[in-house]
From TrEMBL:
GO molecular function, one term: transferase activity
Superkingdom, taxonomy of origin: Bacteria
Source organism (scientific name): Pseudomonas karstica
InterPro entries the record matches: Cell_div_suppressor_SulA, P-loop_NTPase
Short name of one Pfam family: SulA
Protein name: CDP-glycerol--UDP-pyrophosphoryl-N-acetylglucosaminyl-N-acetylmannosamine glycerophosphotransferase
One example of a Gene Ontology biological process annotation: negative regulation of cell division
Amino acid sequence: MQFPHTPQHTQLPLFEAFMMAQPLAPILEETVEAPWSVEPEAFSELSLRGTAGSCLNLLAPILRELSEEQDARWLTLIAPPAHLTQTWLRDAGLNRERILLLQPRGFQSAQQLTCEALRLGRSHTVVSWLDPLSTTARQQLISAARAGGAQSLNIRLG
């Protein structure tokens, strides 16, 4: 079907169009490539589904690695689930001398405590278990992490 007011265009096959194109002049300028960014993201989130034991088994190597960071600052766990105990930390092989376990007190929420720990910068990574996490709360964590030069890791358990 043809429309009376639509002009007809001839389309060249891709190869022919490529061959007919004007060659580009070679660029002889020195190109400096930016190095890969090794700076970690300010915020990461991990969602784990399954039984508490299965989730802890998946989480153990991540927390172990974070507890062995070369950074002299703390790995801080904010309001971890009840089944994440000192015994579990020891049995999972985490360096407990580099870990702080903090619980919110009084009217302070886990979100507020997490932001405060991030902003202070005494921890290289602050792990939280905030679920649900609103867009506003996520932005607050990112801002606090950047202010303190830390990483925020939120874990959602299903």
